[in-house]
Design goal:
Elements: E1 3-8, H1 15-20, E2 30-36, E3 40-47, E4 50-58, E5 70-72, E6 76-83, H2 89-103, E7 109-114, H3 128-134, E8 140-146, H4 150-159, E9 163-167, E10 177-183, H5 186-198, H6 205-216, H7 221-238, H8 241-252, H9 283-299, H10 303-306, E11 309-314, E12 319-324, E13 330-335, H11 341-347, E14 365-370
Antiparallel strand pairs: 1-7, 2-3, 3-4, 4-6, 5-6, 8-10, 9-10, 11-12, 11-14, 12-13
Helix pairs in contact: 5-6, 6-7, 7-8
Bound molecules: zinc ion.
Zinc ion binds at residues 220, 222-223, 277-278, 282, 284-285.
């Protein structure tokens, strides 16, 4: 089946700013900036002490959630996506709808026939976090989004009646990203944003912030404690959070690893949970992972097999997939992400003991064998 979608055609270059610009007599709002996307336009407006972000899209586009103020014209839909608390958004949406109506007849939409997306999905294609949140398994989630696409994600969550809060760190390294908290109520989203912001403080405030954050995200208390513990270890011994990842997994190693708790593939976007379990057979962590497993299996048959296999992590958080020979020597190693090539090349030929340790390897590393459990 082919679907027809409306995209913004060429030749609207002068029309778009004319549509968006609001003359003074139409009220206090002024156009600050805008960006033309494939099928819509996002614009940011400012009035004294207030701001708002508006999306202008084809009227045929699915209706936004009722909680977002919007107007329709003959050919367009104008939606206030986000605004500061004191924004007089009704003035903006009215003024903009009037301006759009003046210019819309000259606007060129392009009809494009599109093949529907392929039905066969790979494990890494799934947004397991979003699925778990929507299924009610996770009370809240955190998203690191690049600023340019943040609005699209946020819109998708708002459509599902989620509440959003944002954390701004005002650090140069986070200039292009937005840290967004999604929860069922605004109070929870804001509490999570507050806890995340507090993780920048010094201990003991930082440890408490990590506990608060873990609780709001629905992580098991035992796993949260193990995480907090690992942060203390990090400061004493290493000082780099990448190394902390190794430590957490090293501590969580058990003889019978449960595949549902395989977090060795998170750098490939594969895994059922978004926290490190305190042990790789933790009952509380399993209770969550076991609820997620059937969801992802239904969306992507064979997902469970992606959690099986032999994986290794080194001290710098590099992850590789291994093949062991009968004598438990590493026969081959596949880097699972860019940067793991050297680890993969160097571990081949080494012997892995029954505890997943590689005594002959120069730096600390650990091997995890996930086999089907009955
Ligand atoms: Zn636990």
């Amino acid at each position: 089946m082919v679907v027809t979608v409306l995209v913004i055609g060429p030749g609207n270059g002068e029309l778009i700013p004319a549509m968006l610009r609001l003359p003074r007599e139409r009220g206090p709002w002024l156009l600050e900036q805008f960006r033309v996307h494939e099928a819509w336009i996002d614009a940011r407006y400012r009035m004294p002490d207030a701001w708002a972000i508006v999306r202008v899209l084809a009227r045929e586009h699915p209706a936004p959630p009722r909680t977002l103020p919007s107007r329709v014209t003959e050919r367009f839909r104008v939606v206030i996506m986000k605004r500061s608390p004191n924004a007089r958004h009704e003035l903006l949406v009215d003024a903009l709808a009037a301006s759009v109506a003046t210019h819309e007849h000259a606007f060129k939409w392009l009809r494009r026939d599109e093949e529907p997306p392929p039905t066969k999905r790979e494990p890494a294609d799934l947004d397991v976090e979003q699925m778990s949140f929507e299924a009610g398994i996770k009370p809240a989630i955190r998203l690191w989004l690049d600023r340019e696409h943040a609005l699209d994600y946020v819109y998708a969550y708002l459509r599902g009646n989620a509440a959003i809060a944002q954390v701004e760190f005002h650090l140069q390294c986070f200039r292009d990203s937005v840290f967004v908290m999604v929860a069922r109520t605004l109070a929870e989203a804001e509490a999570l944003a507050d806890a995340e912001a507090r993780t920048l403080q010094q201990d003991p405030a930082r440890s408490q912030a990590l506990r608060d954050s873990g609780q709001l995200l629905g992580f098991p208390p035992c796993c949260v404690e193990a995480f907090v513990d690992s942060m203390r270890f990090e400061r004493r011994s290493y000082g780099e959070s990448l190394r902390c990842n190794f430590h957490r997994l090293d501590v969580a190693w058990v003889p019978r690893l449960h595949p549902h708790l395989n977090t060795l593939r998170t750098r490939e976007r594969i895994g059922l949970i978004s926290f490190e379990p305190c042990r790789l057979d933790c009952v509380a962590a399993l209770a969550i992972a076991d609820r997620v497993a059937p969801l992802v299996e239904a969306a992507c048959p064979g997902y469970g097999e992606a959690l099986l296999g032999t994986f290794a992590i080194d001290i710098d958080n590099n992850r590789v997939e291994l093949e062991l020979a009968d004598d438990r020597r590493v026969q081959s190693a596949r880097p699972t992400h860019a940067g793991a090539e050297s680890f993969a090349a160097r571990i081949v030929g080494h012997h892995v003991d029954e505890q997943g340790r590689v005594p002959t390897y120069a730096e600390p590393c650990r091997v995890f064998e996930f086999v089907p459990l009955d």
